[in-house]
Design brief:
The structure is a homotetramer of 355-residue chains. The first copy, chain A, is α+β, with helices and mostly antiparallel strands. Chain A has 7 helices and 12 strands. Chain A is globular. Chain A starts with 13 loop residues before the first helix and ends with a strand. The mean pLDDT of chain A is 90. Chains in contact: A-B, A-D, B-C, C-D.
Amino acid sequence: MRGRRDYRVFDERFGYLFNSYYNAKGDRHPRPERGVLSRPSLDDVHAYRAHVDAAVIEAIDALDPDLVALGLAHEEQHQELMLMDIKHLFSLNIIAPAYQPRSRRGASEAPAPIGWAEFAGGLIEIGREGGGFAFDNEGPRHKQYLAPFALADRLVTAREYREFMEDGGYARPEFWLSDGWDIVQNEGWQAPLYWREREGDWRLFTLQGERPLDPHEPVLHVSYYEADAYARWAKARLPTEAEWEHAAILVQAAPSHSRAELHVRTAAESPSQALLKQMFGEAWQWTQSAYAPYPGYCPPAGAIGEYNGKFMVNQMVLRGSSFATPPGHARLTYRNFFSPAARWMFSGIRMAKDA
Amino acid sequence: MRGRRDYRVFDERFGYLFNSYYNAKGDRHPRPERGVLSRPSLDDVHAYRAHVDAAVIEAIDALDPDLVALGLAHEEQHQELMLMDIKHLFSLNIIAPAYQPRSRRGASEAPAPIGWAEFAGGLIEIGREGGGFAFDNEGPRHKQYLAPFALADRLVTAREYREFMEDGGYARPEFWLSDGWDIVQNEGWQAPLYWREREGDWRLFTLQGERPLDPHEPVLHVSYYEADAYARWAKARLPTEAEWEHAAILVQAAPSHSRAELHVRTAAESPSQALLKQMFGEAWQWTQSAYAPYPGYCPPAGAIGEYNGKFMVNQMVLRGSSFATPPGHARLTYRNFFSPAARWMFSGIRMAKDA
Amino acid sequence: MRGRRDYRVFDERFGYLFNSYYNAKGDRHPRPERGVLSRPSLDDVHAYRAHVDAAVIEAIDALDPDLVALGLAHEEQHQELMLMDIKHLFSLNIIAPAYQPRSRRGASEAPAPIGWAEFAGGLIEIGREGGGFAFDNEGPRHKQYLAPFALADRLVTAREYREFMEDGGYARPEFWLSDGWDIVQNEGWQAPLYWREREGDWRLFTLQGERPLDPHEPVLHVSYYEADAYARWAKARLPTEAEWEHAAILVQAAPSHSRAELHVRTAAESPSQALLKQMFGEAWQWTQSAYAPYPGYCPPAGAIGEYNGKFMVNQMVLRGSSFATPPGHARLTYRNFFSPAARWMFSGIRMAKDA
Amino acid sequence: MRGRRDYRVFDERFGYLFNSYYNAKGDRHPRPERGVLSRPSLDDVHAYRAHVDAAVIEAIDALDPDLVALGLAHEEQHQELMLMDIKHLFSLNIIAPAYQPRSRRGASEAPAPIGWAEFAGGLIEIGREGGGFAFDNEGPRHKQYLAPFALADRLVTAREYREFMEDGGYARPEFWLSDGWDIVQNEGWQAPLYWREREGDWRLFTLQGERPLDPHEPVLHVSYYEADAYARWAKARLPTEAEWEHAAILVQAAPSHSRAELHVRTAAESPSQALLKQMFGEAWQWTQSAYAPYPGYCPPAGAIGEYNGKFMVNQMVLRGSSFATPPGHARLTYRNFFSPAARWMFSGIRMAKDA
């Protein structure tokens, strides 16, 4: 830790235990064996946290502010990841534990049919402007040429997705990328993650436990393959990240929000966002863009350089933010990314079209 | 639960969650996903235990005494299994947590060289006599013909095993069964489980944490393949279970013991047992007998019948008992069994020879 | 090659290419990559064979006769293995190629119900006597004590096995060993290998191509798990190898036979064998004996010692011989062995009972 | 087959056997079991080919010319694939068989250091123009904005690549994408495919057998991960496919070529190509572009639509052509694609830089 010559590590071995993936930080506990760690005890972990917090607070004025901002942004990412992991863990338990109680709500309202916002395209710019914190992968700002396109004005709902399912969506290879079709076959996918069929009805596992599926909610927990197959079935496509970012300028920049109930909301419940609803704060939106460096991108030196750059292959970009993204974390230029097969994050579908 | 018409289960779903392997008891939580269970909470588990304890105590006079005895014996098996699992889990943690503090002891004493107790063999009998509880797999009592043989009067020590290692034991296929050699190659076995080389010295991970290897202790945590390879290297062999049981008659039946320190003792520390030392209470002893039904064996009906019979293939028998076996649990006729590749139980080596 | 100082190997690299499993013979081509060998060409292989044949013929008088006998017996084993492998390979091809043409036959005759030959047991002897070639694993001859038992007088037929299937044989865990039940579930076993359901009828893939299943033929291509489950369903059990060998003394020692049509015959077609039919020449018969060394067994030194001894774990013994066993190869004391899950050899079921 | 109502298929089952991946064409022989097909016999395959050839020739005037062109282009792709597969198969054989004899050549000449051709970029166009056959994935032609860039004027040589290796290339995670580093670790990669260290010297397995590595030849058989890591080490990067295509306009369009010796040539041996050497006819060149649909791309209906579109994820684009690409097959707009881990195709490295 720069600026603190006299810092004493809490436990030498914790650097090994808690190194998640930084090669530049030396060896680490093997990832598949993480589940076997029952020690250090909860008390030790709390003491470790208090030790680190105290040292950071004491040192904070002397620290590089960019590094502090990066640390905070990283911590915020883990807040969302914790909710993803808790939901996944709980879902594997037949008891279906609830992370938080469920608020009583009346029946939800069906949204209006999807409308299409049209954009003329042309030579536009995307990427971080400078001014305020952003991750390195959001820059440099650069030009891109866009053909005219249209973007759906809201997310795809569970009911709309169920129509795809009922039309044989998971049984007709013509909608699927080859790798996606292999997974559908091998994993026996029949529906999004956390959908459960009980005697003909669909129920949904949420952070508030299991309950009937609300047809008017955005569909959640779809992989890239499912989002792409749905869009093909719907005679549309997914947007590129440049299209998404260009269109999102219309929306007031990612609003701060803090949710009492950690779950996605219907279009009616979402705050009014003029032309385009649900761009932020409901579900991350798959784009058809592979996660790649922007022209001129150069990762910083050292372990910080491992933060983003080394993952720039075999992943697809998601844009926007979800109900579980901490307040103030999302940005117009924010690039989230996951493997095309992943479904445990809070991902949804917004369609695009050639105009 | 027989005899208690009015018993109310604590939670319907626990039957699914906590069914380890009984097909007759219906579906169960998939074994590879056990590690993901973070619920029910510890409080719920304690309440469940109290609920069951109370019901058992209330009902105990009306219950089938054989079933109660089986339940207790089964519970005792899990006491040893818990220690095996705790040791294994802790061993995977770089912090090397200790399950219990280590007592201070002086240097241990080298045992006398192995002596050989000779037996004339002939037509003998093994298996449960009746009188007192025994598992179904210990009977029926039946005749076997034994050729003359000799049994080692103590367990193989760590120092003796290290000689095998230093003579290329893990690098010379001529000592190994083919399946064992494959594992040695694929898993990179170089020593028994929990042995750790640190700058040329061997250290041992124990339930008291990591410490220098005591050369005079019995070697522990060897697979059948290693025990068999060691014996072949030593120009001996492993005993059959009939030989072991026939010889063990000489030893006072398995003594009750309760250990302060959960670890194996040297021959000098072990209580005097006349001709044969360390038959009980130190380390389970691999035999060369595949786990199979005794002539005339017939498993009981129902879920109880799944207890032993259905595992009678692909396993080898171990005899005796270990330092972790609860007091009163072991017996002359007791048949423990594990896959020949398993090493996480408290297993050691006693050799035999043709006389 | 002993006795031939001046022998020149055909190609230095063939020792590596064609070493199947002898550790004492050095490195070898990895087993899972055998399928990729398209070279040496067929011409080279023929030339290699001619080279070796010529050298053996020239040297044969100077060679150790025991070694020559072992070589011939080993070659004969591979003759049967070749037929097993050809059948398996062809079965995977939708074209269902026939290895040989099928002879025209009328409908087969239903055998009489299984009769039981009773044996008093007692202290008996099994194993090679000396006199004539035998594999090392067939000795030493030694005593065993047998309780009274009965042996079925013929093999189980396909019709009888189908009754087990129709009674839920593959769906009821109470008949199965735990490891076997896992395979049934994981592999989706519903019938013996090579049985094929076509619109409600069972057809059989044979070395003569695919044809309707003959209900009166012995069931073939069952694993140990299936043989054991069938016997449990039929309220019987499999014999031990000692029981089988003791009973087989009644039968004229394994007859020489050479089959025009390589397939199993019904009991009516099998040559009359007094009390016990089909002991040799139809299908290998699973025993409940794990493959283990006989008391006093000691493998020979060198690579020859790897022939049998190193496989003595995790396998079950089969006795008798099959229609594909070369003439003169089988013996009363012959011990065949396979993994309990294997089904591609010509294996059938003969039951036993406690008398 | 359109236009031939009366066509009789050679064998109904061949449609199943020889369907490689077309879901729209029904079920198919499982890919991992392809190695077990020893039937149909070579004679049958020849007869099948003759049958199809005759039918095509008879029908050709009535057939859709676009479909015929697609069929021919597809066949040409398989000609190169056959050479890739033959090389791979032969490489796994210790005998190191040669596909063709090796011509005698003198020592090769070291090329001049890499020079950099500079391009101003701006709003350019890439993709098929129409006029002549092209695959569907090469269009539509569309605009892209390029920042100024420079392209290396020749491929990276084996000697240059060895410098990367000797500088710890395969041992320093800072050069690698995370997925690439995992493979380096798990597969133990130390060099490109087919490089073999023999007593300190590097030898190369080629279609002409094994021989010393020629340091001045382009490095071949590198994965995307290796190409990307090399470029990062060399303080450069890989080109995008738009950069590559824009630069390649300078080069006379892909020359027809037919090679006597199927191997890559040094820059000196390659035909003079003005500013940029070795763009075509030596080795496919990895780009940093993920394989994705061009804006406005829409796959054709039916099985033809499965040809390219369904693979547009998890793959990287390669441009140019190799020594094994059939004459006339390559094009300026040609998009080859492989998984980033693949190395068995004839792939090399051309670097780019921001200008």
